[in-house]
Amino acid sequence: MKQDLMELGVSENVRTIDSWQGREKEFMIFSAVRSNDRGKIGFLENYRRINVALTRAQHGLIIIGNANTLSTN
């Protein structure tokens, strides 16, 4: 995926959630693609991290993920 973004010229903005603390962008794509039978979402169980992930976009946010896994928490 990062290679595809590099071809589009946006790779410098590919970061982990923690590195977006204190930053904003007009539009963001948030990838939460963890998927498992136990419904564990890993580091997103920390409400501070999910807060950062959901509040950094100023005008638009696209979330990509497994709805079944994300809805368990």
Supply database-style keywords.
about 70 residues, alpha+beta, 3 helices, 2 strands, about 25% helix, globular
- Mean pLDDT equals 77
Biggest sheet descriptor = 2 strands, parallel
Instruction: State the helical fraction.
Output: 25-40%
Please give the number of β-strands.
2
Uncertain segments of ≥5 residues (pLDDT<50)?
A: none
- Please state how the strands of the largest beta sheet are arranged side by side: 1-2
Number of helices: 3
Structural class by helix and strand composition: alpha+beta
Tell me the distance between the termini.
26 Å
Helices and strands, in N-to-C order?
Answer: HEHEH
Supply Rg: 13 Å
Please identify the oligomeric state: single chain
Shape: globular
Strand content: 15-25%
Q: Total domains, how many? A: 1
What would a concise description of this structure say?
The protein is 27% helix and 23% strand. It has 73 residues and is of the alpha+beta class. It has one domain (16-70).
Describe the structure.
With 73 residues, the protein is an alpha+beta fold. The protein has one domain (16-70). It has 3 helices and 2 strands, in the order αβαβα. It has a two-stranded parallel ribbon. α2 (47-55) links the parallel β1 (25-32) and β2. The longest helix has 9 residues, at 47-55. The chain is globular. 4% of the residues are buried. The mean pLDDT is 77.
